[in-house]
Amino acid sequence: MISSVLALTGNVTSSELQIIGDDRGSLIALEQGRDIPFDVRRAYYIFNTKTGVSRGSHAHFRLEQYIICLSGKCKILIDDGVTQESIWLDAPNKAIHIKKLIWREMHDFSEDCVLLVFASNHYDEGDYLRNYDDFLRAVKRYA
Length: 143
Ligand code: TYD
Known about the structure:
Blueprint: E1 2-9, E2 12-17, E3 20-22, E4 25-27, E5 42-46, E6 55-60, E7 65-71, E8 74-79, E9 84-89, E10 94-98, E11 103-107, E12 114-119, E13 128-129, H1 132-142
Antiparallel strand pairs: 1-2, 2-10, 3-4, 5-12, 6-11, 6-13, 7-10, 7-12, 8-9, 8-11
Bound molecules: thymidine-5'-diphosphate.
């Protein structure tokens, strides 16, 4: 369940997820259509990330993603071609929803970082913009 939502740019939303806690610990539930605002066709997770490396550095023509840091922390830079913002994903109740044509980079991974990503489609290299200048051109043309 989403307890609060913050719009970062038109195509990026950060949410604080409701923690259901009791004396045994904590639980967070995510429901497709309620919390994750698209049909999930793929999930993947990033872990065991080496110190000092960055990941991401791409945008997508169409793909939507919903990202949660289950353990540890990392910083995500989001860029809509005009504005850039860095956000710490440092709690398992913080989620970020990224829609199309947003450049993203992940930096400063802690050793224990586990990043879970839900995606709106299967893996398709043809949907990637991996070059920043191509991304800026696509923003001008399609955004
Ligand atoms: P890459 O896009 O470089 O990951 P990141 O954006 O986190 O830096 O992907 C690394 C490799 O994994 C690349 O060869 C493509 C492959 N891959 C899949 O096969 N399926 C997937 O769902 C993803 C995200 C990547």
